[in-house]
């Protein structure tokens, strides 16, 4: 797949673990911790870095695998706040919640109970001095983008070069844009939309979304393995999908954030505090269904299960994904497949656990769920057999949601394109009838007959 496509569908952060390089990466990480401590002026950097690394190693070991971490059922564990002390002893939880500003919450959703229990134990066992060093390291590491050049470079050498294989540090002005985006994303988005998102694009997108939803409706109705009861619920869910296109109906207010010229570190610190306060302020209030979790200038899209919404920022509504003047085949093959991908997430192995209102509530009959799992298992096995680099296989269970999205996206976009022709043959462009028949992409699909 072209990388731009991979970028568009990377919202769910799937990935692969390269175990061969992990011992080298661990050594580099230890060295990086020591470098940061040295740059920040602390003595005994080697010794301190060993202790910080050992602590992080322990913390990592009580956490779940990435496959388990994406399981919507397993990660939904409401804990009464009053019970943390007995369920996870080792931390003064009342003090912790009070300092974090969440002491009034009657309960919290714990994603990984054994990690909370494990970390509380580690907290109690670890000397305060080690925690202090760990916090020092974390502060400098997090602030690296606004610190002197050598700290920026050390940060890039580890997180950029070692972890992602990026050959060189991006230009300073680009890093400046990235930081400003992180602090004032929607303020920049408002300007971006004014300059780059014509109203006609929105109208065309509304039509494309409606047609891809219609394709899903047709294909779900035609499924031979799904019973009428589950079908009814699937179609109900499909009918309540809320598309958000281009940019939010109301922009975020940044008036409480103080920006001081010439004070990059101060601006970064204030922006972080502003962000934390923004989210804490939501507690106890109704959910804001108009909120966006990506800025309009982001080339990406997402499906949000608890709100049953599909969201397409303005920046992905540009060539090569979308061109208001292109032949429909181009747009169905580009943004149409992205629309289908996001809808597909509503019916993927995890998204399908949420009902039409966004509740984590089973709406499947047992038999249909078993049939569904047979097909998703086959798709997972197919992807696990792919070997993009020698000895390196895709983890089909980890990437399953994305693979279901891709496959459903392509098939439904193609169905929608064919329907849009209204029975006429596809026009001939540049001597070719486009698009050529799509190859079969997978063994089975959430909402398609295998
Ligand atoms: Zn996705």
Q: How would you describe this structure to a colleague?
A:
By secondary structure, the chain is mostly helical. It has 2 domains: 14-75 and 111-169, no CATH class; 198-250 and 290-433, Collagenase (Catalytic Domain) (3-Layer(aba) Sandwich). The protein is 54% helix and 6% strand. The chain has 16 helices and 7 strands. The strands form 3 sheets. The chain has a 3-stranded mixed beta sheet with strand order 3-5-4, covered by helices on one side. A hairpin with a 4-residue loop joins strand 4 and strand 5 (309-313). Helix 2 (22-39) runs antiparallel to helix 9 (149-164), helix 3 (45-61) packs across helix 8 and helix 11 packs across helix 14. The radius of gyration is 24 Å and the shape is globular. The chain starts with a helix and ends in a 17-residue tail after the last strand. Mean pLDDT is 91; it is low at 1-18 and 436-450. Zinc ion (ZN) binds next to helix 14 and helix 16.
> What is the H level of CATH, i.e. the homologous superfamily of the largest domain?
Collagenase (Catalytic Domain)
State the CATH class of the largest domain: Alpha Beta
Please state the overall shape, judged from the principal axes of the Cα atoms.
globular
Question: Taking strands numbered 1, 2, ... along the chain, how are they ordered across the largest sheet?
Answer: 3-5-4
Distance between the termini: 22 Å
Low-confidence segments: 1-18, 436-450
Oligomeric assembly: single chain
Mean pLDDT: 91
Share of helical residues: 40-55%
The total number of structural domains is 2
Strand portion: 5-15%
């Amino acid at each position: 797949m072209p990388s731009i496509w991979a970028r568009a569908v990377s919202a769910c952060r799937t990935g692969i673990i390269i175990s061969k390089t992990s011992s080298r990466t661990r050594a580099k990480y230890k060295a990086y911790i020591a470098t940061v401590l040295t740059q920040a002026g602390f003595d005994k950097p080697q010794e301190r870095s060993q202790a910080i690394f050992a602590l992080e190693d322990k913390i990592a070991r009580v956490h779940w695998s990435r496959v388990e971490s994406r399981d919507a059922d397993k990660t939904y564990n409401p804990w009464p706040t009053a019970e943390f002390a007995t369920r996870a002893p080792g931390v003064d939880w009342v003090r912790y919640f009070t300092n974090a500003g969440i002491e009034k919450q009657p309960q919290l959703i714990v994603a990984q109970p054994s990690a909370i229990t494990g970390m509380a134990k580690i907290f109690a066992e670890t000397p305060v001095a080690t925690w202090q060093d760990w916090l020092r390291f974390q502060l400098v590491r997090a602030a690296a983008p606004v610190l002197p050049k050598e700290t920026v470079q050390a940060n890039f050498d580890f997180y950029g070069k070692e972890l992602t294989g990026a050959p060189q540090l991006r230009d300073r002005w680009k890093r400046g844009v990235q930081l400003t985006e992180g602090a004032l994303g929607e303020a920049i988005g408002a300007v971006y939309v004014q300059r780059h998102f014509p109203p006609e694009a929105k109208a065309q997108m509304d039509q494309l979304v409606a047609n891809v939803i219609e394709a899903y409706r047709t294909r779900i109705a035609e499924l031979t393995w799904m019973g009428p009861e589950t079908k009814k619920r699937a179609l109900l869910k499909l009918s309540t999908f809320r598309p958000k296109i281009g940019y939010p109906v109301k922009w975020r207010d940044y008036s409480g954030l103080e920006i001081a010229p010439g004070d990059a570190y101060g601006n970064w610190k204030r922006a972080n505090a502003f962000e934390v306060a923004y989210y804490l302020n939501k507690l106890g209030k109704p959910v804001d269904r108009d909120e966006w979790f990506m800025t309009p200038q982001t080339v990406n899209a997402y499906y949000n299960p608890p709100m049953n919404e599909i969201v397409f920022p303005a920046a992905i509504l540009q060539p090569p994904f979308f061109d208001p003047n292109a032949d429909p085949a181009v747009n169905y093959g580009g943004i149409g497949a992205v629309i289908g991908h996001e809808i597909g997430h509503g019916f993927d192995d995890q998204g399908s656990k949420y009902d039409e209102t966004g509740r984590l509530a089973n709406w499947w009959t047992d038999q249909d769920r078993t049939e569904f799992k047979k097909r998703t298992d086959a798709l997972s096995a197919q992807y696990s057999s792919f070997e993009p680099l020698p000895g390196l296989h895709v983890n089909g269970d980890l990437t399953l949601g994305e693979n279901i999205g891709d496959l459903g996206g392509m098939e439904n976009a193609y169905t929608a394109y064919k329907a849009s022709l209204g029975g006429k043959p596809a026009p001939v462009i540049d001597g070719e009838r486009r698009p050529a028949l799509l190859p079969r992409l997978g063994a089975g699909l959430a909402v398609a007959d295998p």
